[in-house]
UniProtKB/TrEMBL annotation:
InterPro entries linked to this entry: C/VIF1, Invertase/methylesterase_inhib, PCW_Enzyme_Inhibitor, Pectinesterase_inhib_dom
Domain of life: Eukaryota
One Pfam family recorded for the sequence: PMEI
Protein name (database record): Cell wall / vacuolar inhibitor of fructosidase 1-like
Source organism: Camelina sativa (False flax)
């Protein structure tokens, strides 16, 4: 019984250390660990699996941001032009960048996965710039940029 407990403890340590070791190589260790630990797949994932989890987080955030944009049309009609641009940008993240990244990582061609992840951060930045300093989406935009940056670092480990 004691041996089983020791083996289980060692497995937990090594699983946790995979996330820790990976996240130490990213620009935001705390964000990385938080994102990966919040997904049950993280504890048993290899680096490709961790990258896919992070890409899923980009998808979730893009979906949340699109929902927020749709709600802002009624509350802030004066921002219609900027909101239209942001809507297009976030739809690009969901319909092009995320699928490209998932397919590339799944097929073992991480370079194309990196391109999709980088583009997600760029799309968010361009959205933000469209408000000329008065964006109601700043916190979501910054989150997308941060998640994209962390995800890119993990995808680069596969190159």
């Amino acid at each position: 019984m004691k041996l089983i407990v020791m083996v289980m403890t060692m497995m937990m340590i090594s699983e946790g250390s995979m996330i820790d070791q990976t996240c130490k190589q990213t620009p935001d260790f705390k964000l990385c660990v938080s994102l990966l630990n919040s997904d049950p797949r993280g504890s048993s994932a290899d680096i490709s699996g961790l990258a896919l989890i992070l890409i899923d987080k980009i998808k979730v955030l893009a979906t949340k941001t699109l929902t927020e944009i749709n709600g802002l049309y009624k509350k802030r009609p004066e921002l219609k032009q900027a909101l239209d641009q942001c809507s297009r940008r976030y739809k690009t993240i969901l319909n092009a960048d995320v699928p490209e990244a998932i397919e590339a990582i799944s097929k073992g061609v991480p370079k194309f996965g990196e391109d999709g992840v980088i583009d997600a951060g760029v799309e968010a930045s361009v959205c933000e710039e469209g408000f000329q300093g008065k964006s109601p989406l700043t916190s979501l935009t910054k989150s997308m940029q941060n998640i994209s940056s962390v995800t890119r670092a993990v995808v680069r480990m596969l190159l």
